[in-house]
Amino acid sequence: MSEQTANHPLYYEMANKFPDAIILEVRSGFFGAVVKSQSLLDVAKTLRDAYSFDYLSAVTGVDDFPEDRMEVIYHFFKSIGGPQFELKVFTTRNEPTVPSLTGLYPGAELQEREIWDLFGIKFTNHPDLRRILMWDDFEGHPLRKDWKEPFYEEDVKPFKNRWPEGKARHSENTNPFQDNVQYPREFNPANWTGEADHLMYKSLIMSGEQSSNIIKTDQLVVNLGPQHPSTHGVFRMVVVLEGETIVNLRPVVGYMHRNHEKIGERNTFLQNMPYTDRLDYLSSMSNNFGYSITIEKMLGITPPERAEYIRVMMAELTRIASHVMSIGFLMNDLGAYFTPALYALEERELILDIFEAVAGSRMMCNYFRFGGVVRDVPEDVMKKVKHLVENRLPRKIDELDRYLTKNEIVRTRCEGVGVITSDEAIAFSATGPILRATGVPYDIRRADPYSIYESLDFDVCIRNHGDVYDRYLLRMDEIRQSLRILRQVLNRIPKGPVISGKPQYLAKVPAGESYGRVEGPRGELGFYIVSDGKPNPKRYHVRAPSFINLTGLAQMCKGAKVADAVTILGSVDIVLGEVDR
Amino acid sequence: MNGFGIVKGLFVTIKHFFTTYWVDLFHGKKNKTRAARRGMVDSAGLFTVQYPEEIIIPSEEFRVIPFLIYEVGENGVRKYRCTSCGICAKVCPTQCIYITRKKDEVTGKPILSPEEFYIDTDKCMNCGSCAEFCPFDAIKMDHDFEIATYERGETHIYSKEKLGKPLEYYAKIRPVNYASEEAVRHEKASVH
Amino acid sequence: MTVNGINIPNASIPPDLQHQVAVTTLDKIYNWSRSNSLWPMMFGLACCAIEMICTAASRYDLSRFGMEVMRPSPRQADVMIVSGTVTKKMIPQIVRLYNQMAEPKYVIAMGACASGGGPFKEGYNVVPGVDKFIPVDVYIAGCPPTPQSLLHGLITLQKKIEKEHIPTTRWYKKEDVVEIPIPVLGPDLFDPRKSELISLETHKPILVEEPVTESGDAA
Hints:
Order of helices and strands of chain C: HHHEHEHEHEEH
Helix content of chain C: 25-40%
Largest sheet of chain C: 3 strands, parallel
Oligomer: heterotrimer
């Protein structure tokens, strides 16, 4: 492309409509327009209403240190499918402020809080701009490039003191406190009085609506979590109750914030691959998939055909493993203590056996490489997969279906609980089974096809009620569709190489940016990578489906009983590694 | 009818309970061992593996902590394959590998052998990158998962001596990989 | 069955009573019964928690060791399996749960993250090893340890328990067991036990930039 043409045709229309607000920026991989921050809301409104970009997939920030500039980038999609349109807003590093989009797109709420937390960009008119991943009193905004953590060694991996003069030492010994901590000057712990959660509790009680009962009741704040058997990890729900009815609910996350993005910006591109396994640890193959197609977009390479088939095979096996587990644990949350989960985990074990034989680890596969996969699938493993797909899994899924679907307890507990409408789901940027259970046929494998999904024959499953039961049924349907895909893949898989070119540990990624997304078991898994031509990414952002699906949790839970909150959370199916990253 | 769901559910469990034993008693005897039979895709009967007594044999690609391959030379001296080229230390995502290159005592020139080699197992994420990119087949991923300890600190930083395992061990745990690598080595040797 | 487990070695039992009588010491039978009924706490943090669930599920089946009762309440649990990355935001709760557990209590650090920070050690929100705050009995390396590896760790813990001696156990001593002070989330996490050191360091006069020296080499 020449210097002066924008990457996206819609840019010119928008530029005509808002001649003062839109600035042209040409960067490879950027499809959209740069907007002045004061007219962001108008442009976004036009995009939503006139061009039906009603789905705000991801919001994230970029720090352009040492330049005095920060970026906020919005990825818009149409809920009927198709490619993205991106808006970018520039702001200064000293006093970064950007208008909040939560009024137009409620799905931006948690993401804007995350940007405030990690970059310190203020969003004006945001309803609840508090830190989300770190605690309120934390000092500094960690994802700024000039912020250094206590165990900081160098900007870029590999570190120089590992070779040729490597001497093993614990990082603790570099720190005066023998620990991973640092304090501001003049800090005296004895005088410390931190802000606790009281403010949040207070605001919650105020914001909860009074019910119209004749008898006036007091509202009660209850914490579910972070250590609670029903929260699927270290997740906390602050629930305001009136009697047993939920008046308001607020998810509190960050108990497993492991700094993926900060570490990922220090790693080389390939070193990030095993870290992506640990995002959504129930479906590591899907994470590998998303990351590798994002980088491949920038590198401009495509994997050989056999590798594409293997990738799809692994991704679909992952989807089955993840969905059976999710179904099993939903039943756990309903009170069927462990029995359905045991049946489900049995099938998962068999799938994990295949992963172990192919990739070397049950959960942390680290199997994909840029331009292919690590190694071929051995013939005997292929036979195992065939047997699993053709004999065992269909039988076992039918068995689960027979046991659970018509069970009266499951139906009474699930039907009509946690309802969310399709408009709300789109507004909250919900993805995956949550969105499709409301009747929106939005599946990235069809809406924005990648890899070989276009040539495969499968249906996008939808259900129409948007309640817990429909989400459960939808997962069952999706397992069946995955099996259908797997059957085609196994019949058609060609012979040939599994990686294009020689395997290399230093990927030379050209400058530019890229937003790649795949349909993971939990929804749209997006990776936003900005490269400046160096061996490590300048910005590495993960659009985590579980995290953004939580935006709508309060809406689903309002009016339900407290016991239902557990079920609803189970049906949203979050994985904390991905929520907190 | 109310309550029938519970009866049905209980029936499922009890059916499962008896059929697994039934299959094990009458159909399992043809197969070789219980441990080998269990965990296979077409396994029927009891699914449980009685771990300390019978172990699921991990597949060839299974990876835990890396180890260094050595061959035993004369006088029982360990000859490590490692040339301390440093590629594993560079690709390691967690930077848990520390290598000191050996230097000639007189001239001070580097020798193709590691003086020291450490892996901090508290950081190692068992990803297998080091083994994948090692050009000399010197570092490989181990299968030994029985590595629980009572204390960490120095014992969790594995030194060269602790990391070293003989070539025969490698041939035993990864026969297919070993055979293919040896074939390539022989080919190279015959060319030179 | 496990009569051999509780018999003291070299006990002379007449041959016809061999399988009916056990000769043992109080220590041995006390430890034997305790080690075979450890109830783990249902407490999952991260990736390793999924492997812990798999260990409890049908293929590996924790209940063969008398551990099937995973208790979500710390009051009913004997062993805390710290399964996953310990973050600064979570450590106050972990210490509180540990304090709430009744003696005798044991801690297993499962996986690289819980033992020493793991792959995320350099992160700003990660505690480099749960043993910075609570005493750990068994460390299991691996990322994540497979279920068999976790079972090996639990057996290692059982072996440790079997070596204990009633008069020296800490929970029968006269003095009270001191609770671990709960870490506080300030501008960064701080341990109340280290308050003095922290205020000493933060009030130090700023020195002229000196080159970073590597101190305290390990190994």
